[in-house]
Design a protein that fits this description.
The complex is a heterodimer of chains A (about 110) and B (about 120).
Chain A: E1 3-5, E2 9-13, E3 18-25, E4 32-37, E5 44-49, E6 53-57, E7 60-65, E8 70-75, E9 84-91, E10 97-99, E11 103-108
Parallel strand pairs in A: 2-11
Antiparallel strand pairs in A: 1-3, 3-8, 4-5, 4-9, 6-7, 7-8, 9-10, 9-11
Chain B: E1 4-7, E2 10-13, E3 19-25, E4 32-38, E5 44-51, E6 57-58, E7 67-73, E8 76-81, E9 90-97, E10 107-109, E11 113-117
Parallel strand pairs in B: 2-11
Antiparallel strand pairs in B: 1-3, 3-8, 4-5, 4-9, 5-6, 7-8, 9-10, 9-11
Classes of the chains: A mainly beta (about 110), B mainly beta (about 120).
């Protein structure tokens, strides 16, 4: 079956760095997405990886290893506004998104 | 960037009434749109895939007669919750892919619609 695993909740300190991991098993693979979702709001796009390696975009970076079925989202210089849920999603061979349950990130001062 | 507009953002209705939610792609054409439902502290649950000019594809367990989807044009899909009941209260979100030259695979999300059925 298809499955996306990511931690339920993580806590980090303002100004620090946090890495949110995601492992996946899908029928085919057409890329992995990371979305940020604040409570009561729709998700917003953060990153898309389809090739192995690290993609950096400002304070956020995303890494993919297709052979390991693994990705991580790295957030640097954490700010209080980064407190949100982070959703990992894989696009399968039918171009459908398979969603993880999300990781709730709590930032403490 | 591409914008998807969803309306209304909040709706409160009485049990037994029907509610229509609109999802519009404002600056791109979307052959395919997706409708999700999200329960508190849960991830998105795909309800159906809306295809322009044809019938929607519903996920297992989603009642197609209860959640009517119409995708009449390349920029508009609607979700109608018929004979709503309190258990239908939820956050409904739509998303769309740019089916034109700008297709990167990215999904663009609407703002979401919070439905409360009394």
């Amino acid at each position: 079956g298809q499955n996306i695993d990511q931690p339920t909740e993580m806590t980090a300190t303002e100004g620090a760095i946090v890495q949110i991991n995601c492992t996946y098993q899908t029928s085919g693979f057409n890329g992995l997405f990371w979305y940020q979702q604040h409570a009561g709001e729709a998700p917003t796009f953060l990153s898309y990886n389809v090739l192995d390696g690290l993609e950096e975009k400002g304070r956020f970076s995303s890494f993919l290893s297709r052979s390991k079925g693994y990705s991580y989202l790295l957030l640097k210089e954490l700010q209080m506004k980064d407190s949100a849920s982070y959703l990992c999603a894989c696009m399968d061979s039918n171009y459908q998104l398979i969603w993880g349950a999300g990781t709730k990130l709590i930032i403490k001062p | 960037g591409a914008v998807v507009s969803q309306h209304p953002s909040r709706v409160i209705c009485k049990s037994g009434t029907s509610v229509k939610i609109e999802c519009r792609s404002l600056d791109f054409q979307a052959t395919t749109m997706f409708w999700y439902r999200q329960f508190p502290k849960k991830s998105l649950m795909l309800m159906a895939t809306s295809n322009e000019g044809s019938k929607a594809t519903y996920e297992q367990g989603v009642e197609k007669d209860k959640f009517l989807i119409n995708h009449a044009s390349l920029t508009l899909s609607t979700l109608t919750v018929t004979s709503a009941h309190p258990e239908d209260s939820s956050f409904y979100i739509c998303s769309a892919r740019d089916s034109g030259q700008g297709d990167t695979g990215e999904l663009f999300f609407g703002e979401g619609s919070r439905l409360t059925v009394l």
